[in-house]
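Changelog-linked ticket: nicotinamide-adenine-dinucleotide example.
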Amino acid sequence: MSKGRISVVTGGASGIGAACVRELAASGNLVAVVDRDIAKAQAVAAEIGGKAYAADVGNETDVEACAAAIERECGPVEVLVNSAGIIQVPVRPHDLPMSSWDDVVRVDQRGTYVACVAFARQMIARKHGIIVNIASIAGMRSMPLHAYAPAKAAVIAITECLAAEWGPSGIRVNAVSPGYTLTPALKNAIDRGERDVSALAANAALRRLVDPAEIGRVVAFLASDAASAMTGANVPVDCGWLVATSWNSYGGLREANG
Ligand SMILES: NC(=O)c1ccc[n+]([C@@H]2O[C@H](COP(=O)([O-])OP(=O)(O)OC[C@H]3O[C@@H](n4cnc5c(N)ncnc54)[C@H](O)[C@@H]3O)[C@@H](O)[C@H]2O)c1
């Protein structure tokens, strides 16, 4: 079904992006790994017989040049997954420098939009394309992440706006909102004491963190013909964190039934 398709994953050198690269490659896609860390992108690309490209998603000149190079060297891009992103320290607003706020918004929100626009240009001309944006549960609930959470809410809104805009041109645009997923970014935040791993797991209905491969599989589904009627959706993949957190007002999740 998806044999021989050309797919692009931004942020594909690490974590959730790398898991998406591996999953798409396993289902027969030729995958272009786009990342600002070219050495890591090359390592992941070598693993799956793909190609690596350097780009900073916050820089539209970079991304436009990268999109043109991939079309020229690999062929027509059918699938774009936007996973490039950075997280933030959970500090109070007055302790969050505006330069940090700008960095998060620039990569997570602006970078997602820039990549959608750059790669959709040729998709629109061909009247066919599939985009999956990696948002977050942080975009769906209030959190002490005053740059990251609004930026991820914007990714969900961007997904909905572009799905309506480009649906008539044959392009599907969906989002996946991961819960706490054990990637290098989250591991580093845990090691620095910025996230409490037992609290993250305890507040999910399945009482564990998400494995990056579990995100990759849902992204591959959304990118496949099996999801041909889905556009504008935001799919949480969070081990049930969203449904469980409000139970804290009732003393928290109960012990297992039975
Ligand atoms: N790990 C989680 O718990 C979690 C939860 C929800 C959402 N997410 C989202 O998933 C995505 C991937 O996160 P991850 O945890 O795998 O992080 P990660 O740090 O392991 O991987 C992110 C990748 O993006 C690349 N990148 C960062 N800025 C870039 C830029 N400006 N241009 C190009 N590449 C850039 C990095 O070099 C890295 O390879 C992010 O959008 C993140 O917000 C992660």
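Closing comment: Example verified and attached. Residues 98-126 form the longest helix (29 residues). The pocket of nicotinamide-adenine-dinucleotide is lined by residues 10-11, 13-17, 35-37, 40, 55-58, 83-87, 107-108, 111, 134, 136, 178, 180-181, 183-186 (CB under 6 Å).
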